[in-house]
Design a protein that fits this description.
By secondary structure, the protein is α+β, with helices and mostly antiparallel strands. The protein has helices at residues 32-35, 66-75, 83-92, 95-103, 107-111, 118-128, 135-140, 156-166, 171-179, 188-199, and strands spanning 4-13, 16-21, 24-29, 44-53, 58-63. A five-stranded antiparallel beta sheet has the order 3-2-1-4-5.
Length: 201
């Protein structure tokens, strides 16, 4: 099991990123909560990781905090929730917001996330209530890199739409979520954050 990777960030296109670790390029998938914390390209970063092994693929997932990784690991134990949906949930809500939804039985907020229907939301509330990881302990044991300096992106709106589609939104819905946001001076990650916040209102 690969517990963490420390290396140079050489590529990022949500939900994928590549980390150069002593000449080996590791491709990881990560939630938007991690992308918000990424440094500029060619900067060093440490990511907590989780490896999913299947017959047809080995997928490596990266997280800026141990709290996010712990929540991801708990989510994929829920019936009907795979790694892709777990990433979508983590991208649409912070770990703290997700905990609130579970403790308050707020299935309405959960259903707003792409791929989460009413039955899945109810299952999440029932199955997650007693096994949510302790955010306080996870956060204390290691937070991620908080340097959010980003390199300019040629077409942040187009990349934001593409990223939202990768998270499970339909192309038309993703375009509508982004089209009315003023993109001036904003990175792709900024636009995705604003679009997701708007979708959950």
């Amino acid at each position: 099991m690969i517990g963490f990777l420390r290396g140079k960030l050489v590529h990022k296109a949500p939900p994928f990123l590549i980390l150069d670790v002593q000449g080996v390029g590791y491709e990881l998938e990560a939630p938007m909560t991690t992308f918000y914390d990424l440094p500029a390209l060619n900067e060093d970063i440490k990511l907590h990781t989780h490896l999913v092994v299947r017959e047809d693929a080995h997928s490596l997932f990266g997280f800026s905090t141990q709290a996010d990784r712990a929540l991801f690991r708990t989510l994929i134990k829920v019936s009907g929730v795979g790694p892709k949906l777990a990433l979508t949930i983590l991208s649409g809500q912070s770990a703290e917001e997700f905990h609130r939804c579970i403790h308050d039985n707020d299935t309405v907020a959960l259903v707003r996330l792409p791929g989460v229907g009413k039955k899945t939301a109810e299952r999440l509330v029932i199955e997650m209530r007693d096994r949510l990881p302790d955010l306080t302990e996870s956060a204390a044991s290691g937070t991620g890199n908080k340097n959010t300096t980003m390199l300019p992106i040629s077409n942040p709106k187009q990349e934001a739409v593409s990223a939202l589609c990768s998270l499970g939104y339909k192309p038309l819905d993703a375009s509508k979520m982004v089209q009315n946001i003023n993109a001036e001076g904003k990175s792709c990650e900024d636009l995705i954050r604003m679009a997701l916040q708007g979708a959950l209102k």
